[in-house]
Amino acid sequence: MINIGLLGCGTVGGGVVKLLAKNQEIIAKKTGAEIMIKKVLERDQQKCLQIGIDHSMIVSRVEDIIDDDAIDIVVELIGGIEPAYSFITAAMNKGKHVVTANKDLIAIKGKELFDTAQANNVDFYFEASVAGGIPIIYPLKQSLAGNHIEEVIGILNGTTNYILTKMSQEGRDYNEVLYEAQALGYAESDPTADVGGLDAARKIAILSSIAFNSRVTLDDVYVEGITAITPRDIQYARELGYVVKLLAIAKEVDGKIQARVHPAFIPFNHPLAFVNDVFNAVFVRGDAVGEIMHYGRGAGEMPTASAVLGDIIEVGRNMAYHTSARIGCTCYEEKVILTISELNAQYYIRMTVTDRPGVLAGIAGVFGNNDVSIASVLQKTSRENMAELILITHTVKEKDLQDSLTVLKGMSIVGEINNVVRLEG
Ligand code: NDP
Ligand code: HSE
Asked: For the chain, which domains are there?
């Protein structure tokens, strides 16, 4: 018998309780032992009672779980940095294995958590922390371990993918779709971390560390959200053969790491272009396996519980063979992390300029002086002596592009730089 101490019985915690009950027999057979929830720490007891947890199992002090020698695995599903960090650390120091879905914590304190797990020779698994139900951490650490991973590109936030999909397919306004995403329960009541790119940044920090064997924390990730994307940008992207997605990108370039989250134009035929609505996907390129893509539900009660249960079963199997900490920290290197100004990419630029002879030449001159080569130019509209210019650059250095834009913003012929979006793929 394997006993669990569950911290948090909210959306995911509740899903874990339900899934354990529903598939109890399958899980026991696959693990080689019965898995039982022994105690639950939860502020709101009603949440536990509603899903059949007996009153006697609910505790209000974490010590009741940490100090219980009969509990083998602590499953942390309260979220956030503190007290989750202290609870996990205390559990490991008591020799308990830990399973968590806490991306906020791992993206900041991954090293410390692995060090504590190693010092105590316990398992520490966190599959659900990235892309909910989609298996990606275990595949990177295990199934793809023989590869040199070259890039990992993900659509890792369901809320923003839903918003961009609806704006693109139905021509709807950002605020209207955001409101709908909240009503449907996709977006948080405070959607700042979703639309601002922070949620995806936490996830790509975790994936980068695993893919490139070198610690990447949230602070190392360049982050830009989707709030500046307008239906106009989406329409022009379509005319040019692209779709707009919020991408979380991790690449190894000449032994250095790039980790960034921002909206991007991707070609219609890119595998990630077909990932719509609230779905997530992770595209991986390895030197042996080539291109692969994992697709599915990146959030929600049961998909996320599926990933948590997979981890619990893995710990249970390890326990059955009296082994632990088999797959620990894989960050055995210290690679340089590139800044966004060192990026080489193609860019879409939409700007409003004065519509008169010589203006285009003046703008082209600024780009040329800064080593920014233009691949194509479109003049879309003309009103009150103003024109909208859509430019696509060749591959150029981000710093050179930003220097050009600084000069252009100061010129009287430039009304506004409306938007700049990177191209990918
Ligand atoms: P919820 O807010 O639904 O559940 C967390 C529960 O823990 C709440 O009931 C909360 O009570 C309780 N809780 C928080 N702090 C304490 C505490 N100190 N003592 C006792 N109880 C506490 O969150 P989710 O289930 O959505 O998320 C859990 C974790 O899973 C997070 O790390 C999240 O990032 C991650 N995750 C979630 C996904 C999802 O789809 N929801 C997907 C992937 C990962 P109260 O409400 O009173 O604060
Ligand atoms: N808020 C996240 C999303 C789900 O919209 O994808 C939890 O990671």
From this structure: 2-133+301-320 (3.40.50.720), 137-297 (3.30.360.10), 340-423 (3.30.70.260)
